[in-house]
Amino acid sequence: MFTFLICFIAGIGAGLGTGFAGMSAAAVISPMLITFLGLPAYEAVGIALASDVLASAVSAYTYGKNKNLDIRNGIVMMVTVLLFTLVGSFAASLVPNTTMGSFSVFMTLLLGIKFIVKPVMTTKESMKTVSAGKRVIQSVLSGTVVGFICGFIGAGGGMMMLLLLTSLLGYELKTAVGTSVFIMAFTAFTGAVSHFAIGGTPDILCLVFCVASTLLWARIAAKFANKASAATLNRATGIVLAVLGISILTVNYLQ
């Protein structure tokens, strides 16, 4: 019962973060499983990535159905992210004691505050003023940055993508989140497969409970996000990210 409760609560945070902001489930689920269930860190990350796959996929489907997904540039960025994740991972192997620290946690909290204080009010009409060639170049550059950081410090991809898509590429918020979860579905799948291949079969109960809970809440969040106005979505996204950032910091403190 305790295992189910922890996985369900972790899934709520991960699902809301994924559906609202394209956040990686690993940022929420991993510390919860490590702290409260005593799972090895590698196994916890594998379960979190597996939870991310379906949650991101169903969120991407919901955003795509509502025409809030840039598939073409999303694919360009995804390929670049996967490539430079390998480059970043290799670079990290050359640096002693490189860990992600609190990077993704603080980014989650700061992004939450940003969306509340300075909401993204870009429109789809203004997005169309950027040429296709320029958008591809921006996607490659953004994918390079996100991929290298993911590979080097091990986390923060979802938050980095959302920040770059809204700030550098000038995406309106719904399209930014939709494109982010589309990319995360593939990167999470790659990460989950490699974790399970190397680390073996994870705790099946934890895996099933986390996947189910994350999927449920991601679906709920994505449906709400696509129906909400830009102002409401910015506020809701900001609150979710801020609360998750504070919660993860608290959980990390208990470790």
Q: Tally the helices: what do you get?
A: 11
State the helicity in percent bands.
over 70%
Task: Tell me what portion of residues adopts beta-strand conformation.
Answer: under 5%
Which of globular, elongated, flat, extended, rod-shaped describes the shape?
globular
Q: What would you call the structural class?
A: mainly alpha
Query: How many independent structural domains?
Result: 1
Low-confidence stretches at least 5 residues in length (pLDDT < 50)? 97-101
The major β-sheet equals: none
H/E series:
HHHHHHHHHHH
Radius of gyration: 17 Å
Would you report the number of β strands? 0
Brief summary of the model shown:
This protein has eleven helices and no strands.
Label this structure with key terms.
255 residues; mainly alpha; 11 helices; 0% strand
Structure description:
- There is one protein chain.
- The model is unreliable at 97-101 (pLDDT under 50).
- The radius of gyration is 17 Å and the shape is globular.
- It has helices at residues 2-21, 26-37, 41-65, 71-93, 103-117, 124-127, 132-153, 157-167, 173-199, 204-227, 230-254.
- The chain is an all-alpha fold and 255 residues long.
